[in-house]
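Minutes, project check-in

Agenda point 3 was the complex the collaborators sent over. CS summarized: three entities, 950 residues total, and the question is how they sit relative to each other. Sequences were read into the notes so everyone works from the same version.
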Amino acid sequence: MSKTVLAINDVTMQFGGVVAVNDLSMHIDEGEIVALIGPNGAGKTTAFNVITGVYQPTNGEVILDGKTIAAGHPTGKIKKIYAGGHNGEYTKSVKNTPDKITKLGIARTFQNIRLFKNLTVLENVLIAKHMRMKANLFTDTFMLSHKEEKRMREDSLELLRIVDLYDVRGEIASSLPYGKQRHLEIARALATEPKLLLLDEPAAGMNPQETDELTAFIKRIRDDFKLTVFMIEHHMNLVMDISDRIYVIDFGKQIAEGTPAEIQNDRRVIDAYLGVAEDE
Amino acid sequence: MSLTAFLQYCLTGISIGGIYALIAIGYTMVYGILRLINFAHGDIFMMAAYFMIFAMTDFFLPWQVSVVIVIVATIVLGVVIEWLAYRPLRSAPRMSIMISAIGVSYLLQNLATYLFSALPKGYPEIPFLKQIIHLGNVSTSLVTFITPILTIGLVAALMFIINHTKVGMAMRAVSRDFETAQLMGIKINRVISFTFVIGCFLAAIGSVLYFTPRATVNPLSGALPGIKCFVAAVFGGIGSIPGAVVGGFLIGISETFIKAFGYSEFSDAFTFVLLILILLIRPSGLFGEKQTEKV
Amino acid sequence: MKKKTKVICSLLLAAAVFVLLYIVDINNTGNSMLATVLQLGAIYALVAVSMNLLNGFTGLFSLGQAGFMALGAYTFGILTIPVESRGMVYYLYGINDVLANAALPVPLAMIVAGLVAAFFALLIGAPVLRLKSDYFAIATLGFSEIVRILIGSSPLNTVTNGSLGLKMIPGFSSFFTPFLISGFCILVIVLLLRSSYGRSFKAIREDEIAAEAMGINLSKHKQMAFIISSFFAGIGGALLAMFLGAVTPTTFPVKLTYDILLIVVIGGIGSVTGSVIASFLVVACKEWWFRFLDQSMYIGAFHVPLLKSGFRMVVFSLVLMIVVLFFRRGIMGDREFSWDGIAAFFRRLFRRNRPALSGADLPAGDERNGGDGHE
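CS then shared the predicted structure for the full assembly.
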């Protein structure tokens, strides 16, 4: 039994009257690749946004390596209209901005690629290294910490070598082909030295060949960087091929959990994806 | 402060507030549709005053005709500015179009200095508006009295246009979602031009009402009222017409009372303090809607 | 290009600039237009670069530059007006007792000027930086006006001398002073932009959400950029006070911010080199080359139309609008001057003159490889 890296306990995320994530509990163990799937609008990206600190959960908590990184309970206006479960069980309120979460070891990519478009490939990676830098504004400006800067560059170039982007390191990020941009986004996330990597639809818009490459790539970085991977994905081939476990959510609620084989045969999952006959 | 003085100040405040409201509507409508702070709006208001001088002082036209000419000329100016300076930047980054607006403001101020010199010019007298009327103990000029009434009337008409006509519906659609409105076959450019027509129409009327009691105009006279009215628009919640009206009245009244209590040198600073406070406490303003960016 | 070659080239350039300035200086009979334009250009260059640090590199559209300059200029003025002449300067309102004998040498006063501006940036930064783009712009514009109004207001008469302003502020001890100070400050900004912090500022400009997801603390870094920019604007204000010798609240209207913004736009938003070039160009045009537009002119018996007082600024505004509308990238876009760029330019020029032998020897990205500076 390996150790749990990320635990999501009874998380509800409610915006006004809309419950985007409803009473969700998940756990991700060290070294696993876990997929989060569900129909469009099921609340997958919202779940990611709760984990990465973009939103504070309305109720419930998120725990990274035993440390609560986000927690909330309904207060104020939401209290009266709260529609999720486990009301009153949580009393803590913990809010971390996304940069703090990243510092704690969760890195992410975005559904619609968000690179620093007008900067070079190398700069994109260097920026992700900034947070771990010890030099302060003064020493950094006056090049008193050029050794550290040099090491940062070397590490970044090394990383680019691993992800096969070394040859294009001087190119402007937006000039890369789409598939490479996805790779760069992952490389940039890796540069923050995460324990847990969140990938939001990494294969979106890719052709089958690129998807196969990506599958191999994710496996490789998981092993090379000793990562735990949690991803949202729609490409079922990729999901079934790569995942150790899968969570399925619909309307913000978990409807199934299990190995790829179990999920493929799960009645509820098939219903969620294909729809249930009205006369049932 | 005696009751008479108090009422006198109230009336003055409401009157100047009404003018601010008229100009603020121009800001709020343009912002609602283009997401642009039209920095040139205050200067369009200033140009309207010079048009009046032209018509009445240089061409000896009667004031009724002059007002019509001022309105038409101001509208033309506003629409031409939109056409030349904002339309080509429709797909440019927000910063570019804002810079363009600042550039237009700069150009109008310099143009006015060039054409009419930096010295203040006398604003023509409109005897009809200047006649003194008495309301109990309070005596005031007619313009002070009719300004708030005119403002309310114009706002009511504007609300009618926006809520009950086809072009109004198009305007609401465009301010909700620019791209979708375009896809639905709304002629964006026509709607935007119409917005400028309304904004400039109100600015022209505001200009006549504002300068009649003040007697002089200079090329910078539009800058400060312009910013104040923008603050009014922000206060009410940018994009909201009732908000702009409430904001305009509020700023007008508070400014008058600050002056009345002898702090006139701070009356302008007050506006800016108010601006920063609103932005900090409730950036979406009194009636504005909160906007969040999607991740 | 080798690093050594670059260093030599840079030294040569610096020497050439020095010699040119020296020639201007010795030929300066006291009211040379060229000398004035160069000095003022250097001051504007610093302020423009400091504004570019925010607007061009961090993506924060600030319109508060004039306010921070005013803070710097007044702080500097109050601390450096010779103690014996203070009675004369403050003849109407008298001077605050605390300040009557508070005097600092020029270099120290200049640093204090920057620090005061930076301190105000710190005060308003935390709340104001939460605002989105155009709201931030209008809030900083508002701040700038508040500063100006308060400086001229009666309760501060014994400090700022109200609307009379400050006089007898010491001038530059040497012709070279503004160039040295401004050059040094710009160098610091360039170093900052090339550091890891500078990269983070650019990341914020490119995509705030991604920057935050990469662990960059948005509020802290924006605050840094805002404070640094204001610090240098304060120093720029102090330099302007030295240049003018006297300041009043009307020296720092919103229009001054606009002037600087225009320099930044014409030079290219996001280019330090551009801002510097544009400062000298704009100042030269405004104060010197376009002056003739303000005087009526006769060629023979022909009276040239349009020329009269004020026409210069109209032409200037039109040039600006043309840049904004048709040459949005300005002179430099977001590129910077670099010896590699110059070398590449000459190589291209050279090739064009001698038609390429075959397609194969065209440069295959030799400019790009220089990107990480490790070649």
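Noted in discussion: The beta strands of chain A are 4-15, 18-29, 33-37, 59-64, 67-72, 106-108, 196-200, 228-232, 245-250, 253-258.
Follow-up: revisit at the next meeting once the mutant set is ready.
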